[in-house]
Amino acid sequence: MKNVGIYLRVSTSGQSTEMQQHALMEVAKRSNWNVVQIYTDSGVSGSVSHRNRPAFKALLDAVTRREIDVIAVWSIDRLGRSLQDLVGFLQEVESLGCDLYMHQQNIDTSTPSGKLLFHMCSVFAEFERGIISERVCAGLEKAKANGKQLGRPKIDDDKEMKIRKMLEDGTGILKTAKTVGCGTSVVQRISNEMAH
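Above: the chain's sequence. Below: its structure in token form.
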């Protein structure tokens, strides 16, 4: 008998997890799973990282302690919305020897077809990362070719001299940045340069 942790999530506190719970309890009963615990995050958006969801974090802790063999969720979007985050989570769970059941998609990673689908998701996530990287590089090259200066704008020499003078006189970074009218990171960078 497999030990299962059921994960339920709704985006707003006004929504109910009752339907999700009912369907997953029926699956657990049919599959002869032992429901260890039901983990519920209410009013938590799917765009929030799974590490910042209290119930989800508790579920992962239970998986790490090997108390759970299967994580059951209503739908893949209950886990998250980013393909890369989802694949990272799936790899983490798989490395701990835990399977995943997603009711709406009828995916069970304890089966050969479920494992195949999981690995296909990994391939698509890698493909997505590659495409994004290529687009970013192409965009940067185009901007350079059009004469755009990349990176943060450089401050003029007069401002830099004023910053150096204020720092030498013992003025703090925040006050210097406010007085000169630039970001604190610029003042911090110049301060670090002066220290070397």
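The first strand starts at residue 3 and ends at 10.
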